């Protein structure tokens, strides 16, 4: 479900990150990381205040850039695990930012087929049930209609899926509650916000080239361009077919 990768990127560090007494000399990557910038008030009272290092600043900037975002061809970044190495910096631009390249490790979320996850129902359409997780909200996670619990039906009138009980199956396509409240226990509805156990069928993460190409096509055809394109950079497909899959409340009631 989680994987580790080593990435390489160019990072800009704004001047505001550097205290006035940050050491200007650099004796290689290791030297800079070992040379702290003191953030003390200058009082020599024997108390050691927190000292900011270039390694700390890099970790902070990389976390801002990557955590919570999808790394193309990899998955959703949940943590920058370590800064392994970085180059000497050079000052560029009117903002006097320090630019350098860094090698660092990341932990990404990209579940393999067969992984079981706990999620919540976010939305329902005739195409299936859309899920969300605490880990993310913007990544499409669909359980297609054909992957719902066997026998599930969609009610266009009510706009949700339900599983009729064997004795109350109908041909109308509407749940028994459309007839009377006394039959409310005769079917199991898929409820928005309900917790479910879902099995991952596929996890697709587009390459950076594919996303850029899709954005270019959308910009030419629709005149929109820029972000929110038709092709999601990451997409999950799930299934409720199998033992102990589907809304957790169904199993709780049975128990």
Automatic annotation (TrEMBL):
One of its GO terms (cellular component) is RNA polymerase III complex. Keywords: DNA-directed RNA polymerase, Transcription. Gene3D superfamilies: Nucleic acid-binding proteins (2.40.50.140), RNA polymerase Rpb7-like, N-terminal domain (3.30.1490.120). One of its GO terms (biological process) is transcription initiation at RNA polymerase III promoter. Residues 116-251 form the RNA polymerase III subunit Rpc25 domain. Belongs to the eukaryotic RPB7/RPC8 RNA polymerase subunit family. This is DNA-directed RNA polymerase III subunit. It comes from Novymonas esmeraldas.
């Amino acid at each position: 479900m989680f994987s580790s990768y080593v990435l390489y990127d160019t990072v800009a560090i704004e001047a505001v990150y550097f205290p006035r007494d940050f050491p200007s000399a650099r004796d290689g990557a290791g030297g800079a990381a070992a040379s702290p910038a003191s953030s003390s008030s200058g009082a020599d009272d024997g108390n050691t205040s927190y000292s900011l290092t270039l390694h700390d600043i890099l970790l902070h900037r990389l976390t801002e850039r990557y955590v919570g975002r999808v790394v193309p061809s990899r998955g959703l970044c949940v943590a920058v695990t370590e800064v392994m190495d970085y180059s000497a910096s050079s000052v560029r631009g009117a903002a006097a930012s320090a630019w350098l390249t860094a090698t660092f490790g990341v932990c990404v979320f990209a579940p393999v087929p067969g992984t079981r996850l706990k999620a919540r129902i976010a939305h329902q359409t005739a195409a299936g049930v859309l899920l969300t997780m605490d880990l993310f909200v913007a990544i499409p996670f669909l359980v297609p209609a054909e992957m719902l619990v066997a026998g599930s039906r969609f009610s266009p009138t009510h706009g949700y899926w339900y599983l009729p009980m064997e004795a109350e199956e109908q041909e109308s396509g509407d749940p028994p509650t459309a007839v009377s409240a006394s039959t409310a226990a005769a079917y199991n509805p898929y409820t928005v916000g309900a917790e479910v156990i879902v099995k991952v069928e596929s996890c697709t993460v587009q390459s950076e080239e594919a996303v850029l190409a899709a954005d270019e096509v959308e910009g030419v055809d629709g005149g929109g361009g820029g972000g929110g394109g038709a092709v999601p950079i990451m997409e999950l497909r799930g299934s409720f077919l199998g033992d102990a899959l589907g809304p957790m409340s169904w199993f709780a009631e049975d128990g």
